[in-house]
Amino acid sequence: MSMTSVFSLDAVTVVLLAVLTIILLVYFNTGSKSRGIINFPPGPSPLPVIGNLHILDLKKLHISLRELSEKYGTVFSIKLGPTNVVVLTGYETVKDALVNHPDEFGERAHVPIFETVTKGYGIIFGHGESWKQMRRFTLTTLRNFGMGKKTIEDKIIEETDFLIKEFDSYKGQPFNPTIKLNSAVANIICSIVFGDRFDYEDERFVNLVKRMNENIQLAGSPMTQLYNAFPFLGFLPGSHKKMISNVKLIHAFLNNYFKENRRKLDENDLRSFIDVFMFRQQQESDNPDSYFHDNNLIFTTTNLFAAGMETTSTTLRWAVLLMMKYPEIQKKVHEEIISVIGSERSPRAEDWKSLPYTDAVIHEIQRFADIVPLNITHETTVDLNFKGYFIPKGTPVIPLLSSVLFDKTQWEKSNEFNPSHFLDAEGKFVKRNAFIPFSIGRRSCAGEPLAKMELFLFFTALIQKFKFQVPPDVSELELVSGVGFTSFPKYKNVCAVRR
To answer: What is the pTM (predicted TM-score) of this model?
Structure first.
């Protein structure tokens, strides 16, 4: 994609003038740094200032990187503006880096937009000891509040009932399920983080969900990626500005909640993640070096809400699309659910092992949907030699999840939606090592057990109760993803017909 496809004509002129003003400073101070690196991973020849941006499709960057991998191998480099970035592709290479070299590849990259909106706090984009303490605390607290246990299972089953009633209200007519699915999944993490669920019509809650959803899409937009390459252009209008504005509104909502929560905090009745964090704050109030401060509270809470909502709800949106696209697979899933559970009883986690085909379909939805194709960029903590190449300390590294989930050496029909990837000859479910939609290693998704249970219980409950059909005004259903940090399906409406 060319630069002019990202900017309007007037904006191109503005950007060129800005770039020309500082071209010598950018190019000679930063652009030449890679020239002296001996045995750096190979890659396409960059242009001054813009690097390789002229050959990359910023709307589908993961596709561009997979194509470059075919030419340059599983370890190669690109230049995003003046910044050298190493890309790791394929299951064996990504696993080697993140599992066998966890310390060397264990830092989170200092990506400008995320540094701007999170300041390095929280668990997704946090750094160093702060990140370690927040992740350890978060995992422990989530487990204490039932992640992966029956207590949270009951909350999910309760929420499926609310979601089913919402879908029922459309009486088989076309509707857009996005906000409903977002809200249902968000309520599960809300029950842990806030200690309660929200009504789907609660205006504050809906606005919070919408802003979170919008920011995750904007984070992967071409304009935001250009801001990451050239942060000095931050004064220009663009999606990065909208992201920052949304974050301020989200934080205003949370700060009001925190203020009220502190007033009612009872150390003998800690009912939510926020309660436990605030109590820990009180315990460490005399420690000036404590990481349990307001910044980590607000950014960790935001991280949990966003991560706990977006990836799972987006996967469910793909599930609906794929079931409409492949009605014969939907029919087979429904038949298995009815044969094991029946049409009245709610699915439970104990049914998991008795539904191998359904389990295989859920896994294949996750693989095929490729929800976080670029992964979240890592950064090297030391100078190291990896796969025969030298990678300096502080180099951003993209362990390309998309290349693993579509690795032709690992998947028989990698480009097709094929539940048989997870079934043996007898129809039993089989695990696949290259199935890593939550990433792997120390920076893998902290909420993976919760997400897996949510996907199983929501999906089986919806297929048990509804037949998903293509709306009458849609002539052909395309499996197309939108532009964003996550890969979301581009379709508007669905018909959920009560069985």
So the answer is: 0.91
